[in-house]
Model the fold of this input.
Amino acid sequence: MYVIYINSSLNIKDNLNVPYEEINKGVVDVEEEAVKSITENISSPVEIAALIKSLGVPFNKGFLAPTEYADNYSTNYAQAFALGVFSADLGYLNMYNKTGSVIDYLSTIKKLADAINVGQYFDFATLKRLAANSANIDSLKYISVHSFNQMDQSLRQRKRGNLSSLIIAGAWLEGIYITVQVAKNNTDSRLTDKIGEQKIILADLMTLLISYAKDPIFRNYVSEFNQIKSKFDMVQITFEQGEPITIEENGMLTVIQKDKSIVHVTTEQLNDISKTIEAVRERLIRK
Amino acid sequence: MISFLPIPSYIKNINKQVSIISAFLNVRPCCRILILSFFVLFVFSSFETKAQSSSKLAEFCAATAGDDATYLKDFVIELDAAGADGKSPEQMFTLLLSKNSEYRFTVCNAEGSAGKAIFQLHDISKLYVTSYNASTGQTYQSVNFQCQKTGAYHLKVSFLDGKKGSAVVVVSFIRTL
Done:
């Protein structure tokens, strides 16, 4: 992945007598491989929503991105990014069983998915039917997440990994945005850990985004995310070693990891991260 | 002399393909279109059927994971039998797991799969989870993993005794620790 970045900065197109299509073809092949390994790496908004709920924090609709912005997204890039944002919101709504508000988000997601030609993977009719009854929440959660996995897979197979990466970036940003909002009134160390450890996830995400930075519109997203990354650079993560313990209870095997990752982040750094995330999200969701 | 030489198999195959094409070209144009349409339909429907069946298996496997499990991702595995060297083929996936989270890995074999899928979870330094106990021969359909270190982990899937097989591994979220 770094080879691609260095090559593009050297501007091969101008300096070597190789058809540009050939250079670009190679880049796309490498990107596909990179996208495949990285997207499976990005953690799910489901986990963030579950953490927030487990802390006893009540649901707050004010954390969600307004669906009325959806009509303003005119490029496939903005639509893909917003699709990711609203998917994280859907995960948050589902985790709190807010099936009443889900329909609005489902129809917005469907509209955006259609705009980037992956609407066929989003079974809106079934999801809408499931959302009508809170007893169906498990099926709703499964079909929502599975639909996103299928959209992601389809985009990558059709060499549209750039859109897939923006969906992932949007979902990540919205997930961390909700986390920093909750952390403003809650000092639980698991929240601080969750924010700090995003340094690892963001490093992966940046590698993915940078691989598409040759596109000028896309470069703007890279630049925005770079601002967040610069704040996370201050966070320190150390590791402790330990041997895992395995227990078996009622036929179920559970492995308890004894290695540990420890996040070192100051209140000032957290505030800085929080402010930057809010500013970047505000700019990107209003596009 | 030449006629007694054995015809290489690849030339025989080419001859076979040429005769199929010639037969195809000899039929009427309207029939050609019909044959082509059936061929295209067959190819695409077989792709779709395959995708649908792995999707159905993933859905079944997610339900098998249990009521306390929230589906996160599924990995489809299709492997050939071990080759002459006896080494079992394996498929590897990389995924990011977060500290303070408990995950469940559940494996489901496709109907008619000759082999039984087993999996291992490890990172760069250590093996954490294995669904197969080589000393007792016991296999586990599901294994929980309580993660305390955020980072990239590798899920390695293979089939017992190097058999050919197809399966799905579903990763679910259980709870915040």
